[in-house]
Structure formats: structure tokens, C-alpha cells
Amino acid sequence: MKFNDLLLGLLVLLGGIGIYVSALDFTDIPGQDYGAGTMPRAIAVFAALLGLFMIVKALVAGLRIPSLELAPWVRSRRSVLSVVVALVLVVFYIVAAPSIGFVPASLVVMAALMLTLKTKPLTAIAVSVLACVVIQQAFGRLLLVPLPRSEFLAFLW
Known about the structure:
By secondary structure, the chain is an all-alpha fold. The chain contains 5 helices and 2 strands.
């Protein structure tokens, strides 16, 4: 999928405006000139300026109509199916992880993605198990990120 600069500039400009508006609700730190909204607002201003620059550049180049050109892979059923499977698995993780835990949910997601992309089953399962345990240990123990827990895999904590 390829956007021309005019359409992409419009999207970046709208994104910058959206970020800025949402950051207006962030509170300032008492006694400070800045707070939680400072960085998002700065990013929003730069995004809006970039969007305006892209729009002006596209208009100077003679583009008048925003357009979208689909990439060649979109014509492949297999590629489209892979994208749909990835989106469904993300939704599955969001819904299932709080009840079954991080490790089982991520195991299913990684193994299913690899199998969809034609990885050998033994390789997909081995890599999924290893990656899940490494990610859980790195985020859960080292970085202290609270990951959804599973009662039957309590030994990992």
C-alpha cells in the first residue's frame, strides 16, 4: 500500500492535531513549568509541521488529489490471509491474556503466526516456548512489568 505525499501529509497533520488535543487534558506538575503533556505536545507540534510540509511539497509538485495505491502483495490471497490471521491473533491476545495468562496466550499467538507463515511445526513450537519464557523473564523479573499471570504456570514467577 502506498500513499501519495498529499494523503500522507493530511494523515500526519490530523494525527498531530489529535495528539495535541488529547495531551491538553494532561496535568502539569505543581511548581514546574512543564508536566506530563509537554512531550506529547512537542511531538504533536512537530508532527503537524511535518504534515504541513508534506502537503505543501505535494501541492508544489502538482498533486491535487490524495491517492492510495495498493501494493502487489494485496493481490495474493495468502498474504491477505496472513494479515487477517495476525489481526485476529492480536485480538485473541487482548481478550484471552487476562484470564489465561501471558505465557499461554503468547504461546498460542507466536506458534499460530509462525505456522501461518509456513514455519516447520517443530521449529514454531520450540521458538514459541523459548521466546515466551525469555520475554516473560525479561519483562516480568528484570523490568518488573506486570504481565498477566496464569495459575498453572506459577513457577515462572
